[in-house]
Write a structure and sequence with these properties.
This protein is of the alpha/beta class. It is 37% helix and 21% strand. Strands 1, 2, 3, 6, 14, 15 and 16 form a seven-stranded mixed β-sheet that branches. It comes from Celerinatantimonas diazotrophica.
C-alpha cells in the first residue's frame, strides 16, 4: 500500500498544498492566491489577513482531497512551510490580534537605524544571533510595535510565524520552530532567546518573552488534525502534522542541498543563494544571513538579493518585442557569451546582498552603435547570473549548484549560470521544492524516510556543465562588473539626493 504526504507552503503570493507519494514525486498541486495589503503608497507597510490565509489553506486541502484520486486514509502526514520573519500574533482565544506584518514590510527601519547609531549594541546582537539586524526581523518589528502599537502587544498571547499559525489551526497545538525562530529570536549557539535583544531596555522587548512558545525541531510530530479540519477538508482524523520549517530551509532540503558546502540558488522574485554548513561562524560580510537548515545540526549561509526575475519582467516589458519564452530562449542562445561586452547590474529597487544600498539602481554598461535589443536582453540574463557569482565570492568555484524557482524553465539561462559561476548547475525534477521539503520532514517524523538515507529521493531533471571558454570570458567581465558597482555607489547616493531635493520619484 502506498503512503502519501502533503507539503503546505504559505507563500507571500500563493498558498499551495502539494501531494507527494512515498518517493516524494508530486502527484497533485492545489493553489490559491495570497493577497498582500499595502497600507501606504510607498508599500513600506505590508500585511496579510491571517484568517484569510487560513481559509485559503483549507480550500487547497479540500480541493486536493477531492481531486487527487488518493484515499484520504492513505495520506499519512502533513508538513508545513512558509514565508519567514514578520509578526503573526494571536490573543488568548487563538484569534489574530491584528493583520500579520510581513517579511517585506520595512516599518522597523527606524529601529534598526537607532541600533546602527549605537555600534556596540549592533555588534552584540550580530555576535549572538549571527545576523545583522534588518527591518524584516521579527524582533525589530516587535520593538516597533512596542513603541507605536503597545496595545497590540498587550492584547497578544502568543507570537507565531506564518507556518506556525497554519499548524496551530490544523492541530490546535501552539508552538514555534527552530528554523523560523533562528532568523532573529535566538542565540544560535544555545538555541535560546537572544539576551542582547530581549534584555535591551531600548528595544523594550523584556515583556515580549511571554509571547514565546516551546521551540520544536522541524521533524517533531506536533499532533493530528482537528475534527473541524477533517470534516471540512475530507482528510482522515488520524492525519499527523509535523513542525515543518521556514520556506528557504525547506527548499534547500527539497532540492537536495543537505551536505556541507552544497550550494543552491532559488531564482524567484528575489535571487537567494545559500551554502550549507555544519559550522557556525560569524561572517565578516554584513549581508550574509545565517539560519538553521531544516535538518538537525546544519545551517545555511544565505545571500538574498532584492531583485531576481523582476529584471526579466522589466526587460520583456520595456526592451523585448516578444513575451514568448520559446522565442526568448532562441534569442539569448544566439547571442554570443558576454553580450558584446555589455554588462547589466540588476538593482531595480536597491540592493541588500552582497552589499546594502537602498539607492542602487540598474544600469547597462558598454552600449555602442552595434548594440541590439538581443544584446541587451542577453546582458540582463547574464547580470542576474553575476549576482549569483557575487554571492559565492570566497567559496570554492568547483562543485554543483542546485537551481530552483521559475528560472529553471530556461535551459539557456541555466547554461549561462553554469558558465558564469563555473559550477555544474543541477535542475531537480520537482518544482514545488519548499512543499517537497516540508513533506520530507513529515516523512522523517513518521519514520517513512530515515534522515540518513535520502539520496534516492532527489531526482534530477537536467545538468548543465560550464563551458571553459565561456567561464574564462565571464571571469574577466565579472571584474568589470564589480568595479563598476563600487564606482557607482556614491553616484547612486548623489542621484537619490538630487531627486529627493526636487521631490521626484526615485
Amino acid at each position: 500500500m502506498s503512503h502519501y504526504l502533503i507539503g503546505i507552503d504559505i507563500g507571500t503570493s500563493n498558498i499551495k498544498s502539494v501531494l507527494f507519494d512515498d518517493q516524494y514525486r508530486e502527484t497533485y498541486v492545489a493553489s490559491q492566491p495570497n493577497e498582500t495589503i499595502h497600507l501606504d503608497d510607498s508599500e513600506s507597510f505590508a500585511e496579510q489577513d491571517m484568517d484569510r490565509a487560513w481559509q485559503k489553506v483549507c480550500l487547497t486541502l479540500k480541493e486536493l482531497v477531492e481531486k487527487c484520486g488518493v484515499a484520504a486514509t492513505d495520506i499519512k502526514g502533513i508538513g508545513v512551510t512558509g514565508q519567514g520573519e514578520g509578526v503573526w500574533l494571536i490573543d488568548p482565544q487563538g484569534k489574530p490580534v491584528r493583520n500579520a506584518i510581513l517579511w517585506c514590510d520595512s516599518r522597523a527601519a527606524s529601529v534598526v537605524h537607532q541600533l546602527e547609531i549605537t555600534h556596540d549594541k549592533l555588534t552584540q546582537i550580530t555576535q549572538e544571533t549571527y545576523n545583522k539586524p534588518l527591518p524584516c526581523n521579527t524582533t525589530m518589528i516587535l520593538s516597533w510595535l512596542a513603541q507605536h502599537e503597545p496595545q497590540t502587544l498587550q492584547k497578544a498571547h502568543r507570537l507565531l510565524f506564518a507556518k506556525d499559525w497554519i499548524r496551530y489551526k490544523l492541530t490546535g497545538m501552539l508552538g514555534l520552530e527552530l528554523s523560523d525562530s533562528g532568523t532573529s529570536l535566538l542565540n544560535l549557539d544555545s538555541q535560546t532567546l537572544a539576551s542582547s535583544i530581549f534584555n535591551d531596555p531600548e528595544l523594550n522587548l523584556t515583556d515580549a518573552t511571554r509571547l514565546m512558545s516551546p521551540i520544536h525541531q522541524p521533524t517533531d510530530l506536533v499532533g493530528t488534525i482537528t475534527a473541524d479540519v477533517a470534516e471540512f477538508t475530507g482528510l482522515a482524523l488520524t492525519t499527523q502534522v509535523c513542525a515543518g520549517a521556514l520556506d528557504v530551509s525547506a527548499a534547500a532540503l527539497g532540492v537536495g542541498a543537505i551536505k556541507d558546502n552544497d550550494v543552491f540558488t532559488i531564482l524567484g522574485t528575489t535571487c537567494c543563494t545559500g551554502i550549507v554548513t555544519s559550522e557556525l561562524e560569524i561572517s565578516q560580510d554584513d549581508s550574509n544571513r545565517t539560519i538553521p537548515h531544516a535538518l538537525a545540526d546544519h545551517f545555511m549561509v544565505l545571500k538574498a538579493t532584492l531583485s531576481g526575475t523582476p529584471n526579466i519582467e522589466w526587460c520583456l516589458d520595456s526592451i523585448s518585442q516578444t513575451h514568448d519564452f520559446v522565442e526568448i530562449e532562441k534569442l539569448i542562445s544566439q547571442v554570443p557569451a558576454g553580450a558584446g561586452g555589455i554588462i547589466y547590474h540588476p538593482y531595480l529597487v536597491g540592493e541588500r546582498a552582497p552589499f546594502f544600498n537602498e539607492n542602487a539602481r540598474a544600469n547597462f554598461f558598454g552600449i555602442n552603435r552595434n548594440t541590439t535589443r538581443e544584446h541587451l536582453i542577453k546582458a540582463v540574463y547574464e547580470g542576474i547570473a553575476y549576482t549569483i557569482k557575487d554571492a559565492l565570492e570566497g567559496s570554492p568555484t568547483e562543485g554543483r549548484l542546485f537551481l530552483a524557482g521559475g528560472g529553471t524553465n530556461s535551459p539557456a539561462w541555466s547554461q549561462i549560470i553554469a558558465d558564469v559561476t563555473g559550477r555544474t548547475v543541477v535542475i531537480p525534477q520537482a518544482k514545488e521544492l519548499s512543499s517537497k521539503g516540508a513533506a520530507i520532514l513529515a516523512g522523517i517524523a513518521l519514520g517513512m524516510t530515515p534522515a540518513h538515507q535520502m539520496d534516492d529521493i532527489f531526482a534530477i531533471d537536467q545538468c548543465y556543465s560550464p563551458l571553459p571558454q565561456h567561464f574564462e570570458l565571464y571571469e574577466n567581465l565579472f571584474e568589470i562588473y564589480k568595479t563598476l558597482r563600487d564606482v557607482a555607489i556614491p553616484l547612486w547616493d548623489l542621484r537619490a539626493q538630487i531627486l529627493e531635493s526636487k521631490h521626484l520619484e526615485q
